[in-house]
Amino acid sequence: MRLRDDEKAMLAGDQGPAVQKAMDLLVRYGEALDAECLVDTRNVAGTIGATTPFLRQYAEREGGMDAVFSEFNLDSAEVVRIPKVKVFSSHLQQGIDPRHAERQGISQDVVRIYETGQAYSSGLGVQPLNTCTPYQVGNVPVKGEHCAWMESSAVIYINSVLGARTNAEGRESTGAAMLTGKIPYWGLHLDENRRGTHLIQLDIDVSTTADWGLLGYWVGEQVQDCIPVIEGVSHQPNLARLKHFGAAAASSGGVEMYHLVGVTPEARTREQAFGASRPSATLRFGEAERRWAYEQVNVTARDAQVDFVMLGCPHYSLEQIWEVCQLLEGQRLSANTELWIFTAASIKQLADVAGYTHIIEQAGGHVMTDTCSAIGKVLPKGTRVAAVDSAKQAHYLPAIMGIQAWFGTTAECVQAAIDGRWKGVLK
């Protein structure tokens, strides 16, 4: 790799051993990818630390949380002192909500470890956003900005909707980027790799959030890790619809970027989306494809009795919480069904002030932060059957937690929480 003078200095250790190890990791990573050089980034979103058993083991070693960062973020068995981060860095979702630890079945020992880790990362200058949707709570990169982000649903959103540039990074590369302000210049950082590969023509209206989730799930299955260009959008999608579309496509496939002709910033026209390339395939999405996607995301669901309704994957926006309140106000949940809504802590603060949290709690539900059921592996005790409005969560939750999951609209999920039974159908 070609290194600039400042990068050579970091690699030589001029800025200390932690920065040296971070640069060494990035150089090895870039060489493995055939990247010709590194690119500057001033926006990193990643995670610090490890799962609880490892976090406990390493945090108790000499060096404490520096030992955790050295091992899990720098791939270094040698413990080095970690300096403050060099660029704006945000922490993604965590494994628990410490304010609802007892309800989530989390011990106070784990809560203490969580609080130690959060204090450590905040002390390094990492913003404690603790969400899979940093773009909803203030970290909003602009078109053309080079970023280093983890989290599949966040990566696809900022690449596609905002026009920022990142590959789907990992804990190690984002940790190293925090200390150096560098990331390998390859993949979706390059113009030529952001062009569309497959043309998807819509034969039906795609309007609701559930519709966009089903379309995303089908698209991901069809194109895998390629870049779809969707043509024929008849209803302008809002943030929630684009968020659920991208999350589903990144889950069923490995999509990191898409184009919606006439909607997303790098696809004013079909020609702009493809550039000099021609589509490798043209696919059509109609009623049969929508039905197939619905059956796939509901493949684990059999029993109509619903124990648990989970909303907020990706984390809910304030508008989505407001929508739930329109459906739930004055109602009461079934005694046999729990409703958990996951969002970012800063959005929950707004929901508290607006009275939305009170409406949900009066009905018997709970607004939680920092995690979700699949990431944190947290469920109400005895859960067998869940209902979700996220195709991503319907894809992961049964595999991770071994339960059944119904997918449907937000209204169908809220009604399931009230009735304790699933009555949703594809309309």
TrEMBL record:
Iron listed as a keyword: yes
Keyword flag tRNA processing: no
Any one GO molecular-function label of the UniProt entry: lyase activity
Pfam families membership: AcnX
Domain Phosphomevalonate dehydratase large subunit-like, chain residue ranges per copy: 1-415
Source species, domain of life: Bacteria
Keywords: Iron, Lyase
InterPro entries: PMDh-L-like_dom (IPR007506)
Protein name listed in UniProt: DUF521 domain-containing protein
Record organism: Pseudomonas bijieensis
Higher taxonomy: Bacteria, Pseudomonadati, Pseudomonadota, Gammaproteobacteria, Pseudomonadales
